[in-house]
Records
---
Amino acid sequence: MKWGSFGSVHIATLILAALILLLTYQLLKNKSQKTQILVLFLLSLTGNASTIYNLVLWGEPLDYLPLHLCAINALLLPFAVLSREKRVCNLLLLWSLGALVALVANGVMADVDIFSDVFFFYYMPHVFEFGIPLLLFRLGLVEKDPKCIKTTLGYTWLAYTGVYGINKLINFLCAALEVTRQDGSLVQVNYMYSMGPIDPLSGALWNILPCEYWYMLLALPIIAVYLVALYAPQMITEKKRQLDSLPVFFGKK
């Protein structure tokens, strides 16, 4: 049975993903912090297991380096769970969206059989890469902090810039050394899509600014709006606290 895109099977798996995360929360919400951390840590390893699986299975290591946003998210997740470091956990609230997009905009995996190991090592890691950052906050293991918006934007663009540089280096060396894949095609990578679009979402940005690396700059306002909406309750509470702490000059008897 193929996964498909926005058909009944695909939609059912999206609903299943939500149920998996909801069930995980229900099972953990009354457990000790130690148990919560242990379970989330074990689940966080699925992303790295997927990276190893892809590197071994396909025999094309340069195409499956952990340099996409979801793979970098997977590398950071175990550290985030164990340390609950505020800036990293708040950062992953943004990066987790990449995993959700990968589940929803699944065009490159649409023809995969949902009962295959290929599907399992794609689907389950993305479910937990999206859900674990949310669960960390929902379970009270970490607090959302609007002050982290700047570091989140900064680290995201730094990672994107670094990966773009790696793309250019790999592509230059592969072209110079004539490194090819098993099918004979020249190895050219596009991690974090910094070299150009591969789906309708990145394609829409490319149509506005058809320039590698820079076209993703158009996503920053969208990301900023998302972060403001995400942290709105905390920002409103802080603003009220500041107003309440101001001295009263008028109307005071």
---
Amino acid sequence: MRTSAHKGTLLLTLAQVWHALSGYLIFLHGARVLGIESYGNFMLVVWTMTTLEIFVVDGVPRSVSWWISKVPECTRGIAWRGFLITTAIAAGLAAVLAAAAPVIGGVWGDPSLVKAVQLSGLDFLAFAGFAVLVQAINGLQRYGTQALVWFTYSTAKVAAVLAFLNAGWGVEGGVLGYIVGSLVGSLAAFVSGAPLVARFKGRDLPRPGQFFSFGMPVATQALALMALVNVDLWAAKRSAASPRLVGAYGAAATLGRALFFVFKAFGDALFPAVARAWARGDVVEARRIASKGLAQLLCFVVPTCGLATGAAEQVLVTLYGDEEYRAGGVLLVHLAPSSVLWTLTAVFGALVAAAGRPGAVATSLTAVLVAAVGIVYAWADLSGVLGAARGSVVVAALGCLATGALMLRILGPVIPWGVLATTLVAALVFHSALTLWSPPSWWVFPYGALLLAAWLAAARKAEVMPGAASPSL
């Protein structure tokens, strides 16, 4: 049976929490095995791979979800056609990356990373099956199955990467682990999703060109967003005074980006529900779903950001087990808020795409990206890695404002301003409290969890955050 949008956001968020935690286990273990200097290079390759993989993850697969939400009776044919197109795109992208790797290594000033970059292109092919079938399941609103597949993929990925790192295979071994994890994820998506997809055998399929007409703007939108999220990391690599600073920046960036990768799942859950309501002309229902989903998102992500910035230095040193990572604390104070802004940007973009206007978001974010490169690189040249972090906040704010204005113009008044103001106050209180005092060592984590739980309970009781029984979700 289909899962409600409200329950779906929670299930997918839990899956994304584990995905982020498993990714953190990889990065934490990688930092200890590779050392702070090689760790920075590992982060650089992984985040670059993740950025380019957007063409595989959020292009045609997102179109698959959109078309299935509109004509679910044709799910099997839509999924199969989407898989063939996505595989062709992945193969072409892998070939381009293999050819461009020497140039990328030259730009980074580190030819030793060329093989790792070339190897990372194979992950695009390994991930294709997972990307398409997960979105097909999403279009059917089977969020429980989608979350299960995500859990399986995340677990396989962390197991494979840790195994290859422990084998002493270095940065290339870590990348190989990602490829193995993606293969297992694709297999899990097939086993769990194929029986659901096979039930719907309608023949009124969208033409290949229709996949691209929706999917390519979505892919461009997602690629621009991921480039915006990671442009500060590339600038920091170029401007850092030492490889150790690159490692500290990579550690802070990884923790900050956890907010983005966990909470952007709200967009994944809201997308098919809003698309379905919008397609049948029920604008009021689409707005109601979007507004309540945004209220839930704000209640989670904004206060969590306050916890992260308040205990930034302690968290980095505790997690990475090395005082050298303390330098990343002041960076995390900037990178966590920028990740919140990118999260809102991603969800705003997903809502606009659900209303059938992905091209408008793509155009907006591409324009912001052009400005961002100039801002972040110029600031990094002036102030080093701290300048890159500060530039990331500025461009994140620009991206959030641009997509937010677009969403308001297309969907109407869906931003819960009162909830936003309340959560900002909560974040400031958490930041101040943890800056003044926090428990030593690992105790900071249960303390932060207790504060967050208390806030969520209070928000639910005061009806700031929509409850599970809300008929709108």
